[in-house]
DNA sequence: GCTGCTATTTTTAGGTC
DNA sequence: AGACCTAAAAATAGCAG
């Protein structure tokens, strides 16, 4: 109806091929916009369908960004729990650990235990989500484990041996329960501008939880703030 | 130009509020469509900007779906590598393990070692990405570890004690390297219809790698294919 | 569950500030 | 890096099969 404005301020969205963007500045802008779009889509999916979503993005400069509802770490935990060899015993596990270490470099060793201790800590922090399952387990295995310092492994090894017998039945019940319930206890979103920490500082940079957070400076003991988005 | 068809077959896209969808069937369809959309957006972001993205979604029925470029696990590893307590020793780690186990239920115990063995396996499978770092490590720690069966832990414990001294320097170098390179060696996408395995079967259901994969049936020893998306 | 359809909403490329 | 603008491109709600 209206005549087209002569000083057309924009020709609107242009079609671009899905291939690596050449222009650095362009790429940067697109990365920001599409990352936001992706996180928005994710949060909509969470709300609309009552599901849980975690996203991790590493920028071209290797800077991590993340979105998580209810939070990235618990979802990663849960995802990693899809278990290829569920019937492994603690002894086997430790043997594997040893085997792996035999052929590992110093760095690999560190990463091993980095990851393992990380897992353990995360594990310890939750556990409330597993409370409902506690009731179902017999306590026979708790008795022998009492004052285990360095010998805990042996004892647990034996316990595990027994434990294996109950795993499948238990697993069955767990899965049945989880597939019957649609309730995803969820109360907030988190969009994290994630970060690497090699010392012990922990900067948060989380977006979400109703409002946008205030960006914080990174705290690298050795490198300061890594540039480039 | 064309007159509008009287038998309008559709009123097109309807606006819906971003709130939990009430109708189960509707929710299911929306979940599928939007999940696909999300994964597509993610893959476009990867291609356009040369970045790495991992997504994990748990459906209302708790079934995990995932997208990852180049793959979910390595990105999760990398993400988890932002390490709150990098200086922990293997001894500490094992003690923590023991402590945690002391207060854990049978299921929790299994999940502990499930996760740990999982981590170990993942770790063993890669390592090629860390090859460049192998050179930098001294081999002093390899000598004592030779015929370690049940005693591997003690030996490694000692080794770790020494190893701690090199960690920070090593970490520094790793981080420097990774933040200086923009090259994200990437050659394919993976869209995993992930799964829980409580026995030992490993179904892949991976989409991507240039083409769409052929869906496979799940292989649960106890429950067959778990319904609901 | 899926594919296809279509009308509409939503995203976003390329600008400017 | 953001916020805003425009108009074209892309995603998708509701329905059919």
UniProtKB/TrEMBL annotation, chains A, B:
GO terms for molecular function: DNA-binding transcription factor activity, RNA polymerase II-specific; protein dimerization activity; RNA polymerase II cis-regulatory region sequence-specific DNA binding. InterPro entries: MEF2-like_N, TF_MADSbox, TF_MADSbox_sf. Residues 11-71 form the MADS-box domain. It is found in: Nucleus. Residues 146-173 form a coiled coil. GO terms for cellular component: nucleus. Keywords: Coiled coil, DNA-binding, Nucleus, Transcription, Transcription regulation. CDD domains: MADS_MEF2_like (cd00265). GO terms for biological process: positive regulation of transcription by RNA polymerase II. This is Putative transcription factor MADS-type1 family. It comes from Rosa chinensis.
